[in-house]
Specification:
The complex is a heterodimer. Chain A is mainly α. Chain A has helices spanning 2-5, 8-39, 41-67, 71-97, 106-118, 128-155, 159-180, 189-211, 222-241. The chains are: A mainly alpha, B mainly alpha.
Chain lengths: 254, 80
């Protein structure tokens, strides 16, 4: 039976890696589309390729090193990082859901990037601006994917599964992105970010505890309890801070 | 970033800036909260050997930190 052989830890790991990679990929793809449509695809693809080479080099350098760190320390540090990162994601998603912060608008980012690119003059062979924009977009978003995969994968002793899940997410988003072209704004990004935030804080809490020799009731199964607790907390916070009069929205900077 | 500096220095600075933005950024309270959570749970779990208390304290402090951070941002927005 699949239900008995797949542990709660694996389900949460796959969900966290898949959603986190998909969200970051949507953001990177928006920039690449803007560059490609505005300045031409050659320089955009060169920027993407250079970023992928740089990310691969980072994985090759830091990936094997992580395996040699004692597991308790690795889980404590990774748990701490995930706890901070997850709470940051949740904070933003809660503020966006309550209407106190503007939602991440892929259409606006696309048009803003296009406006920036159109102000420069295209080069002859390699368009330097297009190359740099595509490189930065893919490298910075990709770096977050790499950190997510390396930290979640190594701490759970399932680096291969995390890498394969990330690859599936990247390919799926690339295919969907290519099909819908500029319509990436239709992706329910804030709901995905809320889910990722819940999963990251869940793993962060779990591994900080494991690193400090806390014995969780039911071991991996307790991950599901954390998912439920944090999801309810988010819902309550969104409900409590939502302005009473939605016709006069207020916005937060951070 | 200063283009006159050697590449190694610029790379190290860039690496440091990335981690600063990644972990601290515009929510230093969450960074501090994570350190407090780790310290408190270490005290409860490793020094007092109170596992049940640690199981409760860890998520409660995480929820408290998130609530305070969200409340601060919400109050700041509504006070504008």
């Amino acid at each position: 039976m699949l239900a008995t052989t797949v542990s709660s830890g694996v389900v949460v790991l796959v969900g966290a890696v898949f959603l986190a990679c998909a969200v970051e990929m949507v953001e990177a793809l928006t920039i690449v589309f803007a560059v490609g449509h505005t300045r031409g695809w050659r320089s955009a693809f060169e920027g993407v390729a250079a970023a992928l080479v740089a990310l691969t080099a980072l994985v090759a350098i830091f990936g094997p090193a992580l395996i040699h760190v004692p597991l308790a320390w690795l889980r404590l540090v990774v748990g701490g990082v995930l706890l901070i990162f997850g709470m940051q994601w949740l904070r933003k998603a809660i503020l966006r859901s309550s209407g106190l912060k503007a939602k991440h608008d892929e259409d606006a980012i696309y048009h803003e990037t296009v406006a920036q690119l159109e102000s420069g003059t295209p080069g002859t062979n390699r368009d330097r601006i297009a190359f740099v924009m595509a490189f930065k977009g893919v490298f910075l978003e990709g770096l977050e994917v790499v950190i997510t995969v390396l930290t979640l994968g190594t701490s759970a002793h399932r680096l291969g599964l995390a890498a394969v899940t990330a690859a599936v997410a990247l390919v799926l988003v690339a295919i969907v992105g290519a099909v819908v072209a500029k319509q990436l704004s239709s992706v329910p990004e804030n709901a995905m970010k809320m889910s990722v935030g819940v999963l990251l804080v869940t793993y962060g809490t779990f591994w900080v505890g494991e690193g400090l020799k806390v014995r969780w009731p039911g071991n991996d199964t307790f991950l599901l309890a954390f998912v439920g607790i944090y999801a309810v907390v988010c819902w309550v916070l969104v409900t409590v801070i939502k302005p009473k009069n939605p016709s006069s929205p207020v916005k937060v900077d951070a | 970033m200063n283009d006159q500096q050697p590449l190694v220095i610029r790379l190290i600075k860039g690496f440091g800036m990335f981690w600063w933005d990644f972990l601290v950024g515009d929510t230093p309270e969450l960074f501090v909260a994570a350190l407090v959570i780790i310290g408190a749970v270490a005290l409860v779990s490793e020094s007092w050997h109170a596992n049940t208390a640690a199981v409760i304290v860890l998520p409660v402090l995480a929820v408290l930190a998130l609530t305070i951070s969200v409340k601060r941002a919400s109050d700041a927005a509504k006070g504008k």
